[in-house]
Every structure is written in C-alpha cells, then in structure tokens.
C-alpha cells in the first residue's frame, strides 16, 4: 500500500523552485566546510508527532486524515511502520526516533504490552534491513499512563518506580537490538506541582539512582549508544527537575553521572525556560555536552509546547553556528520533534512540513558557515575582551592576582568611558549575511 500517493522522492531543485515537494536549500551531498549537508544534519523522523498523535492538541482530539484511522490498534500500528518508512524514503531521512508507547498499543498488563511491542519491533527491524534506515534514539513513555501522574522515577510510590524501571529496561533492550545511536531520558512528569506534598531531595535522589541503574544495565548488556537527558522547565508539571541545560548539568555533576550523559536539547523547551536555543546549545557546548537536538519551534504568543516545524531562519542560523563550532553532533542528530498544525490534516501536509524544516536548517547551515569563515563576529568579540590579553587583565585571566593587588591597581585609575556594545550594528550585519545569501 502507498500511503503518500502521487508524491515522488523529494530532490534538491534550488532556491528558485516553485515545486512544493522539492528542496530549495537542502542538498544532501553538497559539501559545506568539511562535511556534507547530510553529515552536518543527520535528520530523524519523530514517530509520535508524525505517525501516532493524529494532530490532537490540549483542546481537541485527533483530527488528522490518516489511512489507519478506525483500524484495530495493532493493525494501525503495523500500518504506521509502513507509512513511516515510506515517508523517510521519500524525504531522504536516514533516522527515526520513538517512545516505546508510540509503536504499539498499551494493554492491561506489562507482559501483554511487551508482546504487542515485540511484534512491531520485528516489523521495524525488517524495514530497517530493507531500507538502510537507522534508529537515532529510543526512549520510554514514562508519563502517558495514569500510573505516572505523580512521576515515574520520582513517584512517591515504590511500585510505580519499579514499573518505570521495568519499562525502561525493555526499551533499552530494544535500543540495543536495533543498534540505536542513543537513548534519551526525558522526565515527562519528573517534577512537582506543589511542595506542600513533595520531598524534593528524596525525589532527586531516587531519580539519580534510577539513572545510575540505567548506566549499570547499559554496560551489562553492552549497549554502545550514547545516553542523553532532555531538559524542559515546565509542562506537564509546574516545575520539572531538568529545568534547563544548566540545571540538568548541575544535577549530573552533583550525582557524579556527568561522564555518562550528554544533553538532548529542544528549541521549544528553551523558549519555555526563557532562553534562546543558542543559549542552551552554548551552555551545553561549553561543557562538551552538546549531544543531540529536537528541532521544532514554539509560538511566543502561546505559553505551551506548540512543537511547530522550524521555519525561523534566525533560530536556524544561531543553532548551526553552535553545531559547526561543536564540530557537528557527534553522537546525536536532528530529530523533528514537530507536528503539523491541527487544520493541516492531510498526508501531503506531513511532507510539506518536513521539507520546510529541512530547508530552513540547510539555509541556516549555509549562512552559519559564511559567518564563521568571515570571522566578523568572532573578531568583534575577541577585540571586546582584549583588555584581558595584557597587563592586569592577563593576570586576571591567568588567575594570578589578588584582591590586594587589584585594590592597589584600581585606586589610581581614572574613570573613563567604555566602548559601545554596538548591538544594533551587529544585528544589521547579521541581516546582511542572511539576506545577501
């Protein structure tokens, strides 16, 4: 069965193309710097938003027109496997990502659920062997079932902690079986609504123990993929323990887990935390923890996780600057954790959306490469901090001075004006790079 009828494989036709099913900027084999676009941007299809969600939102049930609508749950799951691999083939996407519960229906018992899951995993493995597509990362859905209403690893109830551990073990076994490049831990409900009923210290210690057991099991089964943690500040809980990149890194350092984990950062989560994605990526990069990226975009007029396909060129440029300076995403990739708008309900809309997102990042990559090669902004920043290259500044930089020496130096200084930060000039220069491209 063909799910995306009448749609041929998308190809690069250049920025002047009027073909909506063609790439205007993404040219997989084109070399930018020392890598091809495909190497810089290992794109991944998200199983949940693309195949399983049905375009539902917090205010309405599924509205998407899909061939599997109304089918028996396991049959619908099988059809999604076929549709997903067809979509990846037609878009030239090499990877996919999933939560365990995206793949197969959840049943009354864990045993029955795992049996259904194994059926779908068998079909996915067959499709991977036929097409050469790969699993970027897997994760467990430890937030959808009502048992996780108080959290999973941070639940006040030990039986829930045990079930979450069993579910994670199963998904890690699947990740190893499918040779996943990584495994993501996202604390869907690992947080709290009120401290009136919460022992925060105890919950954080339970979470750290849960992750340490995962590390131990990873080594036991010989899973070679990278572990990631995905920060999010709020939603569904009022306060998530993995609030942002800095908070998550502090947690990892405190519990001596840092050597085992990198960060999987999401654009919309950065917005919810009150940060730019560039900020989050630079925090991670400064700690050598920039692992993988969930590509989407949040509507700044809405205070929730809208997960739109990224079409904002400024975000794309800033993100790709960080990726280039990081030498690429060595252990991760670009997962389109994005969904079509609810009124965009056709199968064609899925293709339009992915092409728009892939083109935006490719355009951002082209501009970011020119910015870095030109060196204008790097030179400006270097000059701005040049007072630390000699004299008392060099002593501060090398941490070889003291309050007493700095007091003696400062007491004789004459007050003088400071240079401008030139923000508006720099922003205009950025526009020049973008729109003269």
Automatic annotation (TrEMBL):
Homotetramer. This is Xylose isomerase. Its EC number is 5.3.1.5. It is an enzyme of class 5 (isomerase). It comes from the Bacteria. It comes from Brachyspira catarrhinii. The keyword Cytoplasm applies. Its cofactor is Mg(2+). The gene is xylA. The active site is at 99, 102. InterPro entries: Xyl_isomerase-like_sf (IPR036237), Xylose_isom_bac (IPR013452), Xylose_isomerase (IPR001998).
């Amino acid at each position: 069965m063909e799910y995306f009828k009448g749609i041929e494989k998308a190809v690069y036709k250049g920025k002047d193309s009027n073909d909506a099913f063609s790439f205007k900027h993404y040219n997989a084999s084109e070399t930018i710097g020392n890598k091809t676009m495909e190497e810089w941007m290992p794109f991944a299809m998200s199983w949940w938003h693309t195949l399983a969600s049905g375009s539902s939102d917090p205010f309405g049930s599924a509205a998407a027109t899909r061939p599997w609508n109304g089918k028996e749950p396991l049959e619908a799951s099988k059809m999604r496997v076929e549709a997903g691999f067809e979509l990846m083939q037609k878009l030239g996407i090499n990877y996919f990502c999933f939560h365990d519960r995206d793949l197969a229906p959840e049943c009354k018992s864990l045993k029955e659920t795992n049996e259904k899951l194994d059926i779908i995993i068998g079909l996915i493995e067959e499709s991977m062997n036929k097409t050469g597509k790969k699993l970027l990362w897997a994760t467990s859905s430890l937030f959808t079932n009502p048992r996780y209403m108080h959290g999973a690893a941070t639940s006040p109830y030990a039986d829930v902690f045990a079930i979450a551990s069993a579910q994670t073990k199963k998904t890690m076994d699947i990740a190893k079986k499918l040779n996943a490049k990584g495994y993501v831990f996202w604390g869907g409900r690992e947080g709290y609504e009120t401290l009136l009923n919460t022992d925060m210290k105890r919950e954080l210690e339970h979470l750290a123990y849960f992750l340490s057991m995962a590390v131990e099991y990873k080594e036991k089964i010989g899973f070679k993929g990278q572990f990631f943690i995905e920060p999010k500040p709020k939603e569904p809980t009022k306060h998530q323990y993995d609030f942002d990149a800095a908070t998550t890194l502090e947690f990892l350092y405190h519990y001596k887990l840092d050597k085992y984990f990198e960060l999987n950062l999401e654009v919309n989560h950065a917005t919810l935390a009150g940060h730019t994605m560039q900020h989050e990526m630079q925090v991670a990069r400064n700690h050598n923890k920039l692992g993988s990226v969930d590509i989407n975009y949040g509507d700044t007029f809405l205070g929730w996780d809208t997960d739109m396909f990224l079409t904002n060129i400024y975000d794309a440029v800033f993100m790709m600057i960080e990726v280039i300076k990081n030498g690429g995403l060595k252990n991760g990739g670009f997962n389109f954790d994005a969904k079509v708008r609810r009124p965009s309900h056709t199968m064609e809309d899925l293709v339009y959306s992915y092409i728009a997102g892939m083109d935006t990042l490719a355009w951002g990559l082209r501009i970011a490469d020119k910015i870095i090669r030109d060196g204008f902004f790097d030179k400006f920043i270097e000059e701005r901090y040049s007072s630390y290259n000699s004299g008392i500044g060099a002593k501060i930089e090398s941490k070889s001075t003291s309050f007493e020496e700095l007091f003696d130096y400062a007491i004789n200084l004459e007050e003088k004006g400071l240079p401008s930060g030139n923000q508006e000039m720099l922003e205009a220069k950025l526009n020049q790079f973008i729109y003269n491209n």
